[in-house]
Amino acid sequence: MSTIRFQALKETLGRKPVKVEEIGKKSEIFGTNVFNDKSMRKFLTPDAYKAVKNAVQHGIKIDRKLADYIAMGMKEWALTKGVTHYTHWFQPLTGATAEKHDAFFETSFDGSDPVEKFGGDQLAQQEPDASSFPNGGIRNTFEARGYTAWDPTSPAFIYGTTLCIPTVFVSYTGEALDYKTPLLRALHAIDEAATEVCKYFDKNVKKVTPTLGWEQEYFLIDTALANSRPDILATGRTLLGHTSAKGQQLEDHYFGSIPTRVLNYMRDLENECMLLGIPVKTRHNEVAPNQFELAPIFEETNLAVDHNSLLMDVMQKVAERHEFRVLFHEKPFKGVNGSGKHNNWSLATDTGINLLSPGKTPMSNLQFLTFFINTIKAVNVYEELLRAAIASASNDHRLGANEAPPAIISVFIGQQLTKVLEELEGVSTGKLSPEEKTDLKLNVVGKIPDVLLDNTDRNRTSPFAFTGNKFEFRAVGSSANCANAMTTLNSIVAKQLKDFKAEVDTLIEKNDLKKDEAIFNVLREYIKQTKAILFEGDGYSEAWEKEAKKRGLSNHKTTPEALKAKVSKKAIALFEELNVMNHVEVEARYEIELEEYTKKIQIEGRVLGDIARNHVVPTAIRYQNILIENVRGLKEIFGKDFEKIAKEQISLIKEISEHIEGINLKVGKMTEERKKANTLTNAEKMAAAYCDKVKPFFEEIRYHSDKLELLVDDEIWTLTKYRELLFTK
Ligand code: ADP
Ligand code: MG
């Protein structure tokens, strides 16, 4: 009997839901462990408080002396909550968050005067031993050191007994080594560009803040079951496993009642989130069995990204208490829906306006249309770069797999707005007659709000959809750091808004047009230029692939192919112009992502080869031996008649041999290809070799293994099966 699998099942079936204490009304506990406005007012001097506020709102640098006071206040606050350590909390390009804890505790060199200490220096900057974080060659060329520096725009928080200070992570020479640095720069760029454009409509706007509301999908698997699968442990997904007889066909899981064990996990998680100031609001079952989703109220983008990264860490930690493992992988199970992380995005002004929400007056609607059409234009120009921003080995399983958005980037806007754009396309060139202006105001721009209310058709197959008051970027992977997608999206829109402003200003100055005339003129041209990116139909269909090709849209199905757009001249020029990244930073990131891709496929290949040869083949042989024993017995009893009686067994024996041969052959070939790929020194070529030469064997090996799973006696099969992973509650 295969012990691990059956022990795991027994353990899982015996689990009781873990009790979760209610710790108070959400509104009362929210942000208790965050150094938020309330705690800052209490623990900071007025000067120090003002310095933090100015840094957050206006990007004003914090004076060193004040940093000392802020640190002191932060420490006092943390000590009242039993905190012993502090850490700079950052997001290196590994995909996980990083922290290195130091105690507040200090003594004099002779051990006297023990005291809890934390000064401005420790708050502002640290030098973690960062040599093992990915740097894409940046540090080799310059200096081996990396620095973390305080990001006052994201508040410090307490996790466990540690004070966590969100920081950026940069090299000695200032190059970004993390996700946060370019994101902050992109947010700054779009703030500047969008504020300028807002001034056409309202001179009082001083700041525009991009907002992000992510939706996190995930799978929950019992710890014992997860531990019984070496592939899940090493790669986060199942590399083998025949689909379960019952999958998601019935869709009976979607929005169904949440099992108690899971519900308790969610409640526990939500409590933690409340304390950490992560405003989670929604929870529900997703389409696939054991798949769930969680979504917060949207926030300022930098904070939202931090919260998502923190959440993913907290989710795994809370799951331990409930004997669950969270799978963030985009496609943990073949034949079952994968997970994404929808990024809902919009722009908000400091005057309280959502720029992607239609307004009440024709003028505010023209403002809405301006931002709406500029976003579409940005996606049209930079669709390849946007695709590159969400590329990863794991997300490749989802994009283009006819369940998640395709690898083709397009924009869905709905019927009514399509009509509005069609009408705007007819706007006259140059000056507009008073009649035309009135008509536009009354019948086109003025009509938008009513029109949108019944614009409820939502196209689930679109990667980038307008959903009434925001765009939803749906192709982001569930395991991704949102920063990658958000840096790109905000950069391309920033660039577009800058160009738009320049074009409108030129028309006003050179062609003597009125402001609104100039805006209508530029928007009309944009509408004409962006038709290729708009698509309302079924994104999963083959017809769309053909049509998209005709339209000249990219369709990069694999990461190595998709990533190339990151280092195109166009992309580098964009990031340099906006000061988001210089070419060294861009190229380093490209290299890092290629390496990560290669490593992921390499690990999967190794694990697959190992499981196939060391679990599947020996199990198949064991079963085959049982069959052989049986045939031998039949021969003994029935003599020459045995062949007829043992017919089925004999054909099974042969079939098993064929699949064993298939596995051994394919694993051998795959290993050869891996060896060849490993000799390549160029990261791009190596990733391509892993993608095109190594990875294709995965499916072939899996095919034989999954066939064997159907043939071999269930009692001796060692790998926990799909039905057990997906349906054991
Ligand atoms: P649904 O899509 O189910 O109708 P909502 O439209 O309320 O739900 O929002 C879905 C997600 O979009 C939520 O995570 C929410 O926080 C986010 N969201 C709503 N408005 C905005 C906005 N202006 N900017 C960014 N995200 C938003
Ligand atoms: Mg959504």
UniProtKB/TrEMBL annotation:
Matches recorded under PROSITE patterns: GLNA_ATP (PS00181), GS_BETA_GRASP (PS51986), GS_CATALYTIC (PS51987)
Domain GS beta-grasp: 84-174
Ranges for domain GS catalytic: 179-616
Coiled-coil annotated spans: none
Domain of life where this protein originates: Bacteria
One Gene Ontology MF term: glutamine synthetase activity
GO biological process: glutamine biosynthetic process
Family per record: Belongs to the glutamine synthetase family.
Protein name (database record): Glutamine synthetase
